[in-house]
Amino acid sequence: MRTSSETADAVVVGGGTIGGWCAWFLRRAGLERVVVVERATLGRGASSRAAGMVRSQGGTQWAVKLGMWSRDFYESQSYELGLDSGFVAQGYLMPAFSEAQVATGRARVAMQQELGLEVSWLSCAEADSLYPAMAPGSHLGGSYAPGDGWIDPARNVLAYATALVSDGVELRERTEFLGLRLAPDGASVLGVDTSSGPISSDRVVLTGGPELAAVGERAGVRITAGGTRHQVAVTEPHPAVAPDRLGMVFDIAEGLYWRPEEGGVLFGMSNPDEPPGPAREVDWPYMKQIRGRLAELLPITGDLGLRRVWAATIDYTPDHLPILGPALRPDGTAIGGVTVASAGGHGMMWGPAVARVAADLALEGSSGVLDVSELGLGRFDSEGRSRLDPDPIALPFPERTSVQ
Questions:
Q1: Is 80 exceeded by the pLDDT of residue 81?
Q2: CA of 159: how far to CAs of 81, 163, 165, 238, 352, in Å?
Q3: Residues contacting 62, CB < 8 A, separation 6+
Q4: What pTM, to 2 d.p., does this model score?
Q5: Who's near 400: CB < 8 A, 6+ residues apart?
Q6: E strand spans, 80-148
Q7: What is the mean pLDDT of the chain?
Q8: Distance, CA of 368 to CA of 361 (rounded, Å)
Q9: Strand 53-54 and strand 34-37: pairing?
């Protein structure tokens, strides 16, 4: 155990997807000594329990830009690292089930196309031809992006763990973050306190996924982020749901998505009616309800058994948007040198981009990837309400967090 004071060019709190890739970006930017402080082990939390969905079809310009940047990063990993996160470009359909959803979807496609995303609107017949496993005529058409896909969450953890070790980032696993060390006036950071001793640094990035609010409490910073149960299941294999017949689909209104996995169907969902909090067990009644909806759209799944089922705690923000900006003192002023980064429940989808922006903010105070001037903690009021409209293309997370 290290008990003497150390010095680092940057300290990243949290060893999940955001923290891991952020530390790697900081090291690649030229910082000599970057330290990751992780309470458990790398990827032990939400990063290893995700479904791995990667899409650029966001409902806001921020979401689209983050999704496109992250997708491109996943596609180029093997050239940069010699190891990748297992990205598969499968194509992603978001069907509409009412005329109002058609109008909203077409407007969303126009916005996405203006940002350079390869996306189009498919008729129901076109979608049925592309995805024959779906019930014919079950929707009114939908938006489709052929470049969207998924990654292997476990392989993603392996990828950034390998990158960190190869590039000389120092890992402090099984080490608790205890708080910030601030200048006497509280205006800037001098380092962090950990269970293994203090580390001096004038750059600190706070991540933590579903536990980010607790990380903030230790830092003396109120972070409007929460955690809630998310359930994922994988059916038994069947030829009718082979990848060339199934594809990826997001039933936005119901908060249900699916994709191919091991010859079967991986599907996931969140219950918007349950209160926030950590996942402790599978909600079987809700799983049965969702399976009923899945069988309406993918009839074969009504006869398929389940191979794997798990409940994970996923992070979220009330507006379904990321948090990217400086840590704030109770009076609303920034703490110099401390950056807060959350993907708001989209760690696989936006993770690399959020991590890169966080590294840019820690180094330069701004990022060429995204204008984050509206995405900081200052957008939330004292009751945790955001002044921004929520991203409409998100799982139906609770509208409030447990930090109020």
A1: yes
A2: 8, 6, 10, 30, 12
A3: 321, 322, 370, 375, 391
A4: 0.95
A5: 226, 276, 318, 384
A6: 88-89, 92-95, 120-122, 142-145
A7: 94
A8: 10
A9: unpaired
> Which pLDDT score, from 0 to 100, does residue 299 have?
97
For 1-91+148-225+317-404, which CATH class? alpha beta
Per-residue pLDDT tens over the stretch 170-209 = 999 999 999 999 999 999 999 999 999 999 999 999 999 9
CB < 8 Å & 24+ apart, contacts of 129-132: 130/91, 130/93, 130/247, 131/93, 131/245, 131/246, 131/247, 131/249, 132/245
For the chain, percent of residues with pLDDT exceeding 70: 97
pLDDT attached to residue 403: 44
- Cβ contact 229:313 at 8 Å: yes
- Predicted local distance difference test score (pLDDT) of residue 232: 95
Sign (positive or negative) of CA dihedral 42, 45, 47, 52: positive
How many alpha carbons fall within 13 Å on the CB side of residue 355? 30
- For residue 67, give the H/E element and its range: helix 61-81
Is residue 4 predicted with pLDDT exceeding 70? Answer: no
> Can you give the residue ranges of every domain in the chain?
1-91+148-225+317-404, 92-147+227-316
The DSSP string of 261-316 is ETTEEEEEE--TTSPS----S--HHHHHHHHHHHHHHSGGGGGPPEEEEEEEEEEE
pLDDT surpasses 90 at 45? no
Q: Which CATH number does 92-147+227-316 carry?
A: 3.30.9.10
Helix (H) or strand (E) holding 14: none
Report phi then psi at 148, rounded to 5: -70, 160
Going by the DSSP 8-state scheme, the letter that residue 377 receives in this structure is G
Continuous segment of H or E residues that includes residue 338: strand 334-342
